[in-house]
Amino acid sequence: MAGCLFCKIIKGEIPSFKLFESDRTFAFLDINPLSKGHALVIPKFHGAKLTDIPDDQLSEILPVVKKLAAATGATNYNVLQNNGRIAHQVVDHVHFHMIPKPNEEQGLGVGWPQQATDMDALKALCEEIKAKM
Ligand code: 5GP
Ligand code: ZN
């Protein structure tokens, strides 16, 4: 898509430190890493959110994330994929972060605002979601 930063990186119009490329998938180092080895894996198909990408364009993403995690030697790492501004998405082309977590200070910091358990509500929600899948 014209104007999309990551589409331009895929086309080579903007330089990147490329780690992997196939017909459907592209991976490169994040320009402002949270830790050494922080990488991005993207489908070549342009779409802003995960739900915009056809299944067949996503099938290689996690295997490439795995390869990168192994190649960086990270033993602790997070895989992150943000959708929407409030969910911390800045670039509107789907991307999966592979972020090594070498220590407490570097890598991803996560807020985890857990809610109290309501089993009846969980059961009802489970049924509601399943009915729509
Ligand atoms: P988001 O917050 O959208 O999930 O993450 C976007 C990521 O893209 C950020 O971690 C940011 O550092 C990275 N990024 C933004 N612009 C560029 C760029 O021009 N080149 C590279 N390699 N990474 C970028
Ligand atoms: Zn794009």
Task: Write a short abstract of this structure.
Helices cover 25% and strands 17% of the residues.
How would you explain this protein's 3D organization?
- This protein has 133 residues and is α+β, with helices and mostly antiparallel strands.
- 23% of the residues are buried.
- The chain is globular and about 50 Å long.
- It has three helices and five strands, in the order αβββαββα.
- It is 25% helix and 17% strand.
- The chain has a single domain, classed as HIT family, subunit A (2-Layer Sandwich).
- The chain has a five-stranded antiparallel beta sheet with strand order 1-2-3-5-4, with helices on one face.
- Bound molecules: guanosine-5'-monophosphate and zinc ion.
- Zinc ion binds next to helix 1.
- Guanosine-5'-monophosphate binds next to strand 2.
Distance between the termini: 29 Å
**How many extended strands?**
5
Number of helices: 3
Listed once per kind, the bound small molecules are:
guanosine-5'-monophosphate, zinc ion
CATH homology superfamily: HIT-like
Biggest sheet descriptor: 5 strands, antiparallel
| CATH T-level topology | HIT family, subunit A
The rough form would be described as globular
**Contiguous uncertain segments of 5+ residues:** none
CATH class: Alpha Beta
Number of domains: 1
Helix and strand composition category? alpha+beta
Strand content: 15-25%
- The helix content, as a percent range, equals 10-25%
Following the backbone from N to C, one meets helices and strands in this order, namely: HEEEHEEH
Q: Averaged pLDDT, please?
A: 98
In the sheet with the most strands, the strands line up as: 1-2-3-5-4
Radius of gyration based on Cα positions: 17 Å
